[in-house]
């Protein structure tokens, strides 16, 4: 090889090294080809501007849930008068046409009854809202259905509501008490009930278990029950036991058309051992221990997000490889509460200021939202347009559409918007 060729090769090698240094090792190693970077279109669709208090009331958005067909959005609005000495918030459920950006109906429900769940029927024609000790049903008109599900307010409150696949029945879970055994593992005294959605008749009531979780899986109802000696997962219709585990608590679960995953928590010599299971294959995919809490499984069994106990730092773990990615801070914000897109490739994170920090005397909002992408797993990016949770401290109206290509949130001006994923 001639001297000129050697010199040219050396120069190219030096340039390649400089380029890698400029890019940085994290970007070079963790940017994945063929995966969407979860970029957002520039122009969102504005639905409504929330009242900021200057007109006599202050509005906040809580839960937001898309209908299964992606055509409608159900939104909980809380209104507090700024003219009264004692605040007495009004609660409203709004239904929006997602394509036209038009509000279809606004329905009042109990004051001071914070909704815990909003559930659409599989055909998107009906909706159930669980608030306090009542479940209200909407069937497409301008008023609530006269059928109201109710439990004793002083001992129970609804935590979850799920439609049966054919829309004829409702499954509810209500919480009667909460205890904390050693190591701060939450255990709930929950009751699972089955109702006739047409008449409101109570058809069946379970025994009281420590933990009960209900989820709809296309044409199935899956029950996850905390038995005295462990966890039991079963198909409700057939009674078939899909999975069981001795001496475990339920940490999280994800049941989709593509698979069934469950995260369990066990106490061993005072330590918390977490395991992610593929229920379909009865396989333990990943086990780990440490001071973590608030674990959230992605919908495809690829990733989960978890928070540290004391520092509030967030990590995303890749289940199959065990790799984990710390979510870097932006300014002073720390990122928590992952809301996964249906394809599991994107997650919206809530960014909060740590204890002791306050932005009331500055220009930055107390809470923001940012986007995480499987294409760049060690980065979170504040969304274009400075979207924020500040106007919606009750939940911010952040929700993904069923196809994962749209989501809702409130921007820094207090405008509730639909954002488009490219």
Commentary on this structure:
This protein has 422 residues and is mostly beta strands. It is 6% helix and 50% strand. It contains 2 helices and 32 strands. The strands form 8 sheets. It has a 4-stranded antiparallel sheet with strand order 1-32-31-30, with no helix packed on it. A hairpin with a 5-residue loop joins strand 26 (334-340) and strand 27. The N and C termini lie far apart (49 Å). Residues 3-31 have low confidence and may be disordered.
Number of distinct beta strands = 32
- Given as residue ranges, the uncertain stretches (5+ residues, pLDDT < 50) are 3-31
State the secondary-structure class: mainly beta
What does the main sheet amount to?
4 strands, antiparallel
Spatial sequence of strands, sheet with the most strands:
1-32-31-30
Distance between the termini: 49 Å
Strand content: over 45%
Number of helices, where a helix is a run of at least 4 consecutive DSSP H or I residues: 2
Q: Could you report the average pLDDT, rounded to the nearest whole number?
A: 79
Q: Gist?
A:
The protein is mainly β. Helices cover 6% and strands 50% of the residues.
């Amino acid at each position: 090889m001639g001297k000129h060729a050697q010199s040219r090769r050396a120069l190219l090698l030096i340039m390649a090294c400089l380029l890698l240094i400029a890019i940085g090792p994290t970007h070079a190693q963790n940017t994945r080809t063929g995966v969407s970077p979860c970029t957002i279109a520039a122009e969102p669709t504005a639905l409504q501007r929330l009242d900021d208090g200057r007109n006599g009331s202050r509005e906040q958005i809580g839960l937001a849930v898309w209908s299964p067909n992606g055509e409608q959005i159900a939104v909980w609005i809380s209104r507090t008068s700024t003219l009264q000495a004692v605040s007495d918030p009004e609660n409203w459920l709004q239904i929006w046409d997602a394509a036209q950006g038009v509000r279809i109906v606004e329905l009042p429900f109990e004051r001071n009854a914070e909704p815990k769940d909003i559930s659409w029927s599989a055909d998107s024609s009906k909706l159930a809202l669980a608030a306090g000790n009542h479940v209200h049903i909407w069937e497409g008109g301008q008023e609530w259905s006269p059928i109201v599900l109710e439990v004793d307010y002083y001992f129970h409150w609804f935590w979850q509501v799920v439609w049966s696949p054919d829309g004829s029945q409702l499954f509810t879970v209500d919480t009667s008490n909460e205890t904390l055994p050693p190591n701060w593992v939450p255990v709930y005294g929950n009751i699972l009930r089955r109702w006739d959605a047409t008449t409101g008749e109570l058809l069946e009531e379970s025994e009281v278990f420590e933990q009960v979780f209900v989820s709809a899986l296309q044409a199935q109802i899956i029950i996850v029950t905390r038995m005295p000696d462990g966890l039991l997962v079963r198909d409700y219709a057939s009674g078939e036991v899909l999975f069981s585990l001795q001496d475990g608590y339920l940490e999280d679960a994800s049941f989709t058309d593509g698979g069934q995953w469950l995260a369990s928590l066990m106490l061993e010599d005072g330590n918390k051992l977490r395991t992610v299971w593929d229920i379909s294959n009865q396989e333990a995919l990943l086990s780990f221990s440490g001071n973590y809490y608030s674990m959230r499984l992605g919908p495809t069994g690829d990733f989960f997000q978890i928070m540290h106990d004391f520092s509030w730092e967030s990590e995303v773990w890749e289940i199959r490889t065990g790799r984990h990615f710390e979510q870097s801070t932006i300014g002073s914000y720390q990122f928590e509460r992952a809301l996964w897109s249906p394809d599991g490739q994107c997650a919206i994170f809530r960014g909060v200021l740590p204890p002791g920090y306050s932005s009331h005397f500055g220009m930055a909002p107390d809470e923001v939202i940012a986007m995480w992408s499987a294409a760049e797993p060690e980065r979170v990016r504040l969304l274009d347009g400075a979207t924020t949770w500040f106007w919606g401290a009750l939940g911010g109206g952040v929700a993904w559409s069923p196809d994962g290509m749209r989501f809702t949130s409130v921007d820094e001006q207090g405008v509730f918007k639909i954002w488009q994923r490219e």
